[in-house]
Queue: 4 jobs
Job 1
Amino acid sequence: MIRVSVQREAFDIAAEIGALEASGVGALATFTGIVRGGDGVTAIELEHYPGMTEASLSDICEAAQERWALTGCTIIHRVGRLDVGAPIVLVVTAAPHRAAALEACAFLIDRLKTDAPFWKREYRGDTALWVEQKASDVERGQDWDG
């Protein structure tokens, strides 16, 4: 089971975990990304290419299912303007055993940081600047090609 959503509204972490937990799996792994502040950042804004972004996230989930024995994969990514402290992304993996769930979860978050078409702008007071992709994110994504 693959569930992918790109949405403006907040997600219900417990409900998303419960949906995969109900299938009787042996392990669930989750990652929740939060908008972080620092350096004067007060909010971020994410834009995406509708249809293309969802397809890219589905492809990433399919790649994880081919690599690990997953029984489920959920990726929910928010778009729009989000204040510091707001949940921005949720990744949940379900598998018969913990190693597959944990490794697949790490793979998914690393790959969506580099492979999914999102554009991010950071707000600092009255200033908004587009953010370039980090070299460290690219390197982590490439580590899975190994």
Job 2
Amino acid sequence: MNSDVQRELARLDLLARWLDSRFRIPGTPLRFGLDTLIGLIPVAGDTLMGLPSVWLIWRAHRLGLPKGKLARMGLNTGLDYVLGTIPLLGDIFDLGFKANLKNAAILRAYFAPESGQEHA
């Protein structure tokens, strides 16, 4: 994997962590990010937080991720958005689902150096 791809993956990992797991609820193992915090604003918060999630998918497309994996990322983001708009239940769902971390993991798995393949 070339260094440009490695840097981009590191940036996308950082974005995913900020969105999904940057903060911890004291005294618990539960982590949450900006997606959960801003998602507390009904509908508008989930819509606003969908933008960086869609950007992550767009970057994955630009890196050459196959369509099937992009579709899986889109499904993760779509579920996060749709279920996140449900008052209270959506906020609880956000604490556990972590769509952006799942999407970053899809990227890492595809571009992992241990796979022995160059994809970029």
Job 3
Amino acid sequence: MKIKRQIIVFDAADLAAESTFWAGLLGGTVVADDDDGWHSVVVDGEWRLGIQLAPNHVPPDWPDGTQQQQVHLDLHVDDLKAAHEEAISLGARLLQPADDLETAGEAYQVYADPAGHPFCIGRH
């Protein structure tokens, strides 16, 4: 089997909030499908994420709740403080702060997007 493209899709009860968040965080735009059940996030002309309408979506309860996460993204950045501020301004919630943002080297923080999906922003 030869895979032509990897597709990452997030379920969300609020398509606009979820797709706008990820487009903002990734520096892209939202393309809404005609049937109102799907949004694509496009970055530099390339499709990056799909957001699928799931009216009964229940956000995961990270790290060990009864509704566990199924998948998460790790985003690597050079400036963790700036990335944190941008994520929060777009609607992310901080779930687990880094032990020390000031020390050089590896560090990461865990967030939830507007639909509650956990993701990490880290400096590696």
Job 4
Amino acid sequence: MATLLITPAADAATITPTPTPKATATPTPKATATKKAVAAKKVVPKKRAKKTLSPSPSPKWPPAGFKSNGEVFAKIPTAKELIGTASNSAVLTRQLAQLVDGVRICEKYSCGAVQIASLTGCTWWEINANLVGESSVDNKTLRTFGTIRTLVKATAARQITTVLLISEENLALKHIVTGISAKCHHDPVGDNTASSTYTPSK
């Protein structure tokens, strides 16, 4: 906080008249001004009170919109949420930027996404999903066109990870990714390194 102190002006003056003798006709001398010395007011700086910072509250758990099964939590993000997450995730941004025949992968193929987390952390994750759609233009019966299996690397306790689920079916066919299941593993990773596999139905 800034404080403005107003002090008397340094050039303030008082006038002392000089008496005029009666017997003489000499002109009366003009009064002369004398300046009073003004003592400078000492400004004492105020001591600033020390502020104590209170700790940030713990993030809400489980996060809004997540469904749980035991220690595992999962949520299907909206398109807006996925874009927002990608803006803060270099991995997700690279995945979405992959090109297939000069077109971004999820603008060519049907894709889905899921956000996962665990209370205790996982050594690796296994995500499975189905790609479902109408049998043909004339046949509106829904059928499974293929399955997606995605393996994800280890996550810490309560770490939220967004997983992109990519098929190899043309987006124009308007298939949807559904039946998503997420498994949190605690055994050694072994050969289960991060990967994504699409298997068309026979």
